[in-house]
Amino acid sequence: MDLLSSVLRRPVAEDDKYSRGVVGFVTGSTDFPGAAILGVTAAIRTGVGMVRWVGPEYVGHMLLEVRPEVVLQPGRTQVWVVGSGVSGALGSEQASNISAALAEPGFAVIDAGALELVDYSRLAVNAVLTPHAGEAERLLNRLGYKITRAEVEENPISAAKEISRLTGQTVLLKGNVTTIADKLGHVRQTPPANPALATAGSGDVLAGILGALIASNNEKLVSGLFTLADIAYAAAVLHAEAGALAAMDGPVAALDIAEAMRTVVGDRLA
Description:
Layout: H1 3-6, E1 22-26, H2 34-46, E2 50-53, H3 57-66, E3 79-82, H4 93-101, E4 107-110, E5 126-129, H5 133-142, H6 149-154, H7 156-167, E6 170-173, E7 179-181, E8 187-189, H8 202-216, H9 218-223, H10 228-247, H11 254-269
Parallel strand pairs: 1-2, 1-3, 3-4, 4-5, 5-6
Antiparallel strand pairs: 6-7, 7-8
């Protein structure tokens, strides 16, 4: 069985919602509430037993209108997805929620605004960092490595390896070709993706897919059967497959990509 199929977990009779995987989200804000909806929908369509979400009450009401199955409180999870649609402002409500989510050992996906908030020297979790080129530029400069966005785009392998080296975490550097680097210096790149993926919110969807795959493969990650780099690569390729599928019907919005994951997963498990 290939990697993409093996990371997708088929429910069995003995399963309950916890054994199928629980993803927690600290995503979205009053400025960018849609990020919460996109990531949560993507995780559900990738296949998990439960999604938790923490954030502003206004955003939570919006989320429940679309995804009534979401639990709006912290609790038991296998992974936290943090930062999508969140500003990098220290002291904000979501910044405090992100700090709380990352305070205990476990797994995490650190996206968007959270990339600017985290003190990587004190990080308790094993994480996948998911910057695009502009976020990679800002993160590397904050970590003392001077670089421009153009240089990141020109040599994404070098940039991804530097972020991983400086943070001690796995890196998924987003682009038409996505680059994954781990702290051992190993690098892999995805095939070029359909340009339809270049749409607002697409990265929020990818973070949700990645979170779902980490949650549903938690035991395999703990045992060493999979690495976070394996899961990150699979998430990026499955995300690209969902984008290509959505594009067959015309112009693509990010929510189309999230909903297309249901078909992508179903086809691979058929």
